[in-house]
Design brief:
12 helices, alpha+beta, 3 domains, Adenine-n6-DNA-methyltransferase TaqI, Chain A, domain 2, Helix Hairpins, 30 strands
Length: 432
């Protein structure tokens, strides 16, 4: 039944909740503090986690591992650790009290496991008995509830929300029977949506793998499968076409040119968070006087930025913009007289990146120096062949990327539908 038909069969009233709108006349509106109590998790950190033991949940798990509900918890702690930890029980609503953005702060799930589990620090526990816990979890994940939590949150870089901020959160409450029906309806619908998203994400993974395999093959073997091959002399690279060379990166690229050059008065700064999968998606306009010390790479068109820090992410960038741009020293800046597109693709080839990773130092933020990076070797065909390979890869990858973007758009649309579905259902605007 459509929303409009369902609404025609009901009498509605104003919910008195800003941004929520009308709800069925026989429903109530209550603040969380009026039908439950708040507790705070604690005495569990990541260092306490073990492979097998008592079930536990940390605030990061709420963001990364679960949606709406959880029957089984992945994190485990020892019996001794659990003695000083805060227990949680079936039906408890769990909020993440810390986060990185105001938009996501206070994400919540309901614990539906039969065994006693334990909550770590920055997990806010809401315990009540009179309402369907699964319905509450859906109601607390609506656009309205998320907006309320974002307004009540504190902080900028690290965002927090506390039980005192959640006490006044109002939610619409139908009779218990309707709560159960709505929760079951949403569970079935959301399971289908999750299955759809999983299939689409697997498709994206396969397409990304296909794209990488294509790059690996063409930049090391060329376009002609019948070309005679020779040993490259590099163990990790294997054989290459007989007429190709093997050259050090520093011998075909000028690495980090223009050092000690004065920065522009005002420029767009590209840091390690600005680029993803070859695309510049975040721009920071800053003044020279406020520039971070790492802002040193003054860019020209056709420069390549190679990610030196956590290079396995492959967030390299071929710069093609006009205007004043400066990149972080977290990148190696490469300028070449060879075909720049071919060099860009060659630097994405798996065996080279694996070699870069092996030469990197550091654990949390492994990095390679520009000097060590420049000593690495890549296969190099004649210039005309470089151009042919670059054009071939541009064409093929553009087609793959089009499918990937279309698939991502489908995922975003179904997520928007899911958000709307939950909001409409927990406000009684859908016949279930």
């Amino acid at each position: 039944m459509t929303i409009s038909k369902a609404n025609a069969m009901k009498t509605f009233k104003d919910s008195s909740i800003k941004y929520l709108g009308k709800i069925p006349k026989h429903w109530k509106v209550k603040r969380l503090v009026n039908f439950g109590i708040f507790l705070k998790g604690g005495n569990i950190s990541r260092q306490d986690l073990i492979e097998n033991g008592e079930s536990a949940i940390l605030y990061g798990d709420i963001y990364m591992k679960y949606e709406i509900s959880a029957r089984f918890l992945d994190s485990k702690i020892s019996k001794n650790t659990s003695l000083n930890a805060i227990p949680i029980y079936k039906g408890d609503i769990l909020f993440a009290g810390s986060g990185e953005t105001k938009e996501d702060i206070g994400k919540n799930i309901v614990y539906l496991g039969d065994e006693i589990a334990f909550a770590g620090g920055d997990v806010i526990i809401f315990r009540q008995k009179e309402n369907n816990a699964l319905f509450l979890s859906y109601a607390l994940n609506t656009k309205y509830a998320k907006f309320y939590k974002s307004i009540e949150s504190k902080g900028e870089i690290i965002v927090h929300i506390y039980a005192s901020n959640l006490r006044g959160l109002k939610i619409p409450l139908p009779p218990l029977k309707e709560q159960k029906e709505i929760a079951e309806f949403l569970d079935k619908k959301c399971e289908k949506i999750s299955n759809f998203i999983d299939k689409k994400q697997k498709l994206i993974t396969l397409l990304e793998e296909k794209k990488q395999a294509l790059i690996n093959e063409v930049v090391t073997k060329g376009l002609d499968s019948k070309t005679e091959l020779k040993d490259s002399g590099i163990k990790y690279l294997g054989k290459i076409p007989k007429h190709w060379e093997v050259r050090k990166i520093k011998h075909i690229c000028n690495i980090n040119p223009q050092t000690n050059t004065k920065l522009p008065n005002r420029f767009v700064y590209i840091d390690l968070e600005s680029v993803k999968s070859g695309y510049l998606f975040k721009k920071q306009i800053i003044n020279r006087d406020n520039a971070p010390s790492r802002a040193q790479r003054i860019l020209q068109k056709q420069d390549i930025l190679f990610q030196l820090v956590r290079p396995y992410q492959k967030n390299n960038y071929l710069f093609d913009k006009s205007g004043d741009y400066v990149a972080s020293t977290g990148y190696a800046q490469l300028r070449t007289s060879k075909n720049v597109k071919f060099i860009y693709y060659a630097l994405l080839e798996d065996s080279l990146v694996q070699r870069v990773v092996l030469k990197s130092t550091g654990s949390n933020y492994p990095a390679i120096t520009s000097s060590d990076f420049g000593d690495l070797k890549i296969p190099l065909p004649p210039l005309k062949e470089q151009e042919q390979i670059a054009e071939f890869l541009d064409s093929k990858i553009a087609k793959i990327d089009t499918i990937i973007e279309k698939t991502k758009k489908q995922i975003e649309l179904i997520k928007e539908y899911k958000t709307t579905l939950i909001s409409q259902a927990v406000c009684g605007r859908i016949m279930v």
